[in-house]
């Protein structure tokens, strides 16, 4: 078992808007899922020790592609398009849903999903729908509670316990980890859990 994983290289490889364009090299994938603005790009950058590998969204909800980053020349981080951006036309929202669901249910290389939720709030309906899909398709997942630096220390244990209750109900949920892209809390724990699933 790998106790520590160090990311020594990370490079953007491609953006995919159509599942026929997915890489065919068979390398394992860790995918990141969450609503727009939850902190997905920031988390990926922090894990990789890079400032601007994943471009933080200037226009929320604009990215409609699956972005592939090659890590340590061994596996991919896949930045899935964010959901829950209300201003998107219905047609785009439903094509988003089809793309993601198709990817989740058919991608053999997918080792694990990191589901991001905002540490300060209850999970949204869409957050719960996503973890429902993950569990239904038997995909192991971690929950990262983002922006933990904004959660008052006094509230932390209660909020983390509540999230563990909520997500712990799903057999395929492997862990719930508070995370901050600013302080780096949760980074090593997240990397360790990811490494265990790549092994
Ligand atoms: N305080 C704080 N702000 C964060 C954190 N992560 C992201 N943000 C901010 O939240 C906003 C959205 O982040 P981004 O990574 O672009 O979210 P994405 O849309 O999910 O990729 C940006 O203004 C970030 O600076 C965090 O851990 N702590
Ligand atoms: Mg982003």
Fold and architecture overview:
The chain is of the alpha/beta class. It is 32% helix and 22% strand. It has helices spanning 40-48, 90-106, 125-136, 156-168, 187-198, and strands at residues 10-16, 29-33, 66-71, 75-79, 110-118, 141-146, 173-178. A 7-stranded mixed β-sheet has the order 1-3-4-2-5-6-7, sandwiched between helices. Helix 4 links the parallel strand 6 and strand 7 (173-178). The radius of gyration is 16 Å and the shape is globular. The termini are close together. The mean pLDDT is 91. Bound molecules: guanosine-5'-diphosphate and magnesium ion. Guanosine-5'-diphosphate binds at residues 34, 36-42, 56-57, 60, 82, 146-147, 149-150, 180-182.
Quick one: overall form?
A: globular
Distance between the first and last residues' Cα: 7 Å
Q: For the CA atoms, what is the radius of gyration?
A: 16 Å
Number of DSSP helices? 5
- In percent terms, what proportion of residues is strand? 15-25%
Q: What percent of residues adopt helix (DSSP H or I)?
A: 25-40%
Number of strand segments? 7
Helix vs. strand class: alpha/beta
Q: What molecules are bound to this protein?
A: guanosine-5'-diphosphate, magnesium ion
Largest sheet: 7 strands, mixed
> Whole-number average pLDDT?
91
């Amino acid at each position: 078992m790998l106790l520590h994983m160090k990311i020594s290289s990370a490079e953007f490889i491609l953006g995919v808007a159509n599942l026929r364009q997915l890489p065919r090299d068979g390398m394992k994938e860790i995918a990141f899922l969450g609503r727009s603005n939850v902190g997905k790009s920031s988390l990926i950058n922090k894990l990789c020790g890079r400032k601007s590998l994943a471009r933080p969204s200037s226009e929320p909800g604009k990215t409609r592609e699956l972005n592939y980053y090659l890590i340590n020349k061994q596996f991919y981080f896949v930045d899935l398009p964010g959901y829950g951006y209300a201003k998107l036309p219905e047609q785009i929202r439903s094509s988003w849903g089809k793309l993601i669901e198709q990817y989740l249910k058919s991608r053999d290389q997918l080792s694990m999903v990191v589901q991001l939720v905002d540490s300060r709030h209850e999970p949204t309906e869409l957050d719960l729908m996503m973890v429902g899909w993950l569990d239904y398709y038997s995909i192991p997942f971690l929950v990262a509670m983002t922006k933990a630096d904004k959660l008052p220390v006094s509230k932390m244990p209660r909020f983390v316990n509540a999230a563990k209750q909520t997500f712990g109900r799903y057999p395929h949920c492997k862990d719930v980890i508070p995370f901050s892209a600013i302080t780096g809390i949760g980074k090593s724990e997240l990397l360790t859990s990811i490494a265990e699933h790549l092994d």
